[in-house]
Specification:
single chain; 213 residues; alpha/beta; Rossmann fold; seven-stranded mixed β-sheet; 18% strand; globular; disordered N terminus; oxidoreductase; FMN reductase
């Protein structure tokens, strides 16, 4: 990666579906965001992270399903996510899957809103046995939305926060580095990760071929 042509900071949107305050879900989201910023900084790229706490717009999300209308507060949250260069999405585990609030937020987005957008996935739960939620639930969801998920997803069980070894921290650092690798080229080019490539009209391509002949 190179930052020589970087024109603006990378914009990260951090979506946390934690229900309590403070929450382990928000704590994991913050650590993933910081790991991404550190990895970008090492490449000379600055980053800004904005947090969307879904519990703060839960009522607005429910109203959107009933009325089909997003009020100003929900629109702001949606725009923060859709206009970001990269997304960090973290949910608590409920009934062996992502929470209903988490799913509901992504259900109100336009079906193409996350196409091509780099995303780092995270989840929290009481025990390690729920860690596969990242692969059997979250990754398929974002694949359906055509987002580009980082290879490493991070699950945090209760014991991980008190672990004496550095495996948990290494997983977070690796995941942040992967997201940084996905978003930095877009920042260097000054483009959105979902920007459409320039298309040369067929007539121009044909004319060029005739000149070469």
């Amino acid at each position: 990666m190179t930052s020589a042509d970087s024109t603006r900071p990378v914009r990260l949107a951090v979506v946390s579906a934690g229900l309590s305050e403070p929450s382990s879900t928000r704590l994991l989201a913050d650590r993933l965001a910081e790991a991404t910023r550190v990895a970008l900084r090492e490449e000379g790229v600055e980053a800004e992270a904005g947090v969307v706490e879904l519990r703060e717009v839960a009522t607005q999300i429910a109203h959107n399903f009933v009325t089909g209308f997003a009020d100003a507060r929900l629109r702001e949250a949606i725009e923060q996510v859709t206009e970001a260069d990269g997304l960090i999405a973290v949910t608590p585990v409920f009934s062996a899957s992502y929470s209903g609030l988490f799913k509901s937020f992504f259900d109100v987005l336009d079906k193409d809103a996350l196409a091509g957008k780099p995303v780092l996935l995270g989840a929290t739960g009481g025990t390690p046995r729920h860690s596969l939620v990242l692969e059997h639930a979250m990754r398929p969801l974002f694949a359906y939305l055509r987002a580009v998920a980082a290879p490493t997803a991070v699950y945090a069980a209760t014991d991980d926060w008190a672990a004496r070894d550095d495996d948990f921290s290494r997983r977070i650092a690796r995941a942040g580095g992967e997201l940084a690798s996905l978003v930095a080229p877009h920042a260097a080019a000054g483009t959105s990760p979902t920007a459409e490539p320039d298309v040369v009209p067929f007539e121009q391509q044909l004319a060029a071929l005739r000149v070469e002949e």
